[in-house]
Each structure stands twice: as C-alpha cells, then as structure tokens.
Amino acid sequence: MSTTAVVLIVVEDRSRREALRETLEGPLRVLEAAHLDEVRSAVEGALSPPDLILSDLRSAKGEGLTLYRRLRADPHVDAAPVLLVPPAGTEEKIEANGDTEPVLPESVAGQDLRRLVGHHLAAEGLSPGPPLVPDAPLPEAVEAVVAARLGDPAFTAQELAEAVGLSRRQLTRRMKDTMGTTPAAFIRRRRLKRAEELLATGAETVKQVAAAVGFASPSAFAKAFRDHAGAPPSVYAERHGE
C-alpha cells in the first residue's frame, strides 16, 4: 500500500474531470480516464492500484452504470470502492439512484469534496489521522463508513461508532435525533437496498448477492430480504430484472 492514497477519476466530461482532479491532487495521487477503454492504461502506469474510484453515473457514450459494473469486474481495479459522479446540473437526489454505490452530490466541491473523499478513504484505513474531521455532518460520515464496509459480514454498529469517533450509545442517540434510525437498522437497510439493486441487474445469483451485501448465510439473507421487500430474492429478481 502506498503512503499516498490513489484516486482514479473515470469521468467523460473533461471540465468535470479536471475540476475533480484539481480539487483532489496534492494530498492524493490522482489518475484519470475519460472512458472505460482508458482505465487499464491509466492504472498500469501507476505504482499501485487505485484506492478509490470516482466514476460516471451516466455518460454520452451510454456507459454509466455499465461502466460501474465493468469496473467491478476488472481485476486491475475491482478491489477499490466506487463513488459515482452524476452529470453536471443533475437534480437527482442520492436516494433516486438506488444504493449500489454512493452517489457524489453534484454541487459538492472544494473542501466538502475533499472531506467526502477523505471519509471514504478513512473508512478503508487509507488516510492518516482520525477517520473523520470533527465537524463532519453525521449522516455524511455514517454513509461513507457504511458504504465502504457493506460487504463485510463482521461489520457491526459498534465498529461504525468507532469509525465516526463516538461511543455506540452516543451514535445511537445522535442517529435517532438526526436520521430517525439506529445504527444497526441503518446498516441492515443499506445491505438490503443494495441487494435490491444487485438482484435487479440479474447478473448475480441470490447466493452471490447475499455475500456481496454482507450476509454469511443465504438462508438468513432470504428471510431478511423477504421481510424487507415482501418477496423472496428470486421472485424479486424475476419481477425487477433488467
């Protein structure tokens, strides 16, 4: 692992890509690619694989989430978490795009962008010092940590509390006050919402989806998903598959 975290920006719009690079380079090492076919050459020229990828949510070439899925399947970059970048001027909210990966708010820039990227890297243990700055908004902090650990079946509310610098009791109280939920319920909902997205693609089996969202037992996943979505995973996939 390099001492300086590496961020790969895969964004078609040149001005958007350059703005992201100018904001992040310095404390971070930044690699760039406009399209999927440029990713491998960008990565092969680096000394280490990327620690985080900023990828187009949509593009004029029609890559968008197809690009995301192919990045997840590319052995050069498949281990890196992905933060999706919406087109400039989008009015979509994060929730409107599902929970396969977190979506970068279109308006975020400057210090807020560096802080958000820092949260994701800190959750992976890739940035020095405490994982979150003291004044980080709690929902943003929680989202960053959970998104990075969603596939880990051992990830608990206690670990989430430690990552954001609070005791479990403090985190529970603050999440109830600001987000209307508890840490355990939030983690569970994020796992199941991501499962919905993965099942809808039809690209993975129920067992693979269960593992991808942090369920060690397919049967436990099936029960939890049915309670959440009102249908077994296989039926949901048939109804919502692409």
Characterization of the model:
Among the domains are: 1-115, 3-Layer(aba) Sandwich (Rossmann fold); 191-240, Homeodomain-like (Arc Repressor Mutant, subunit A, Orthogonal Bundle). Strands 2-1-3-4 form a four-stranded parallel sheet, with helices on both faces. Helices cover 49% and strands 8% of the residues. Residues 90-100 and 128-135 have low confidence and may be disordered. Helix 1 links the parallel strand 1 (6-10) and strand 2. It is α/β, with parallel strands linked by helices and 242 residues long. It contains eleven helices and four strands; from the N terminus they run βαβαβαβαααααααα. Helix 4 (110-123) crosses helix 5, helix 8 packs across helix 10 and helix 8 (183-201) crosses helix 11 (233-240).
CATH topology of the domain at 1-115: Rossmann fold
Helices and strands, in order, run as EHEHEHEHHHHHHHH
Question: What distance separates the N and C termini?
Answer: 38 Å
Nearest-integer average pLDDT: 76
Largest sheet: 4 strands, parallel
* CATH homologous superfamily identity of the domain at 1-115: Response regulator
- In DSSP terms (H or I, runs of 4 or more residues), the helix count works out at 11
Task: Determine the fraction of residues in helical runs and give it as a percent range.
Answer: 40-55%
Shape: globular
Strand content: 5-15%
Q: Largest sheet, order of strands side by side?
A: 2-1-3-4
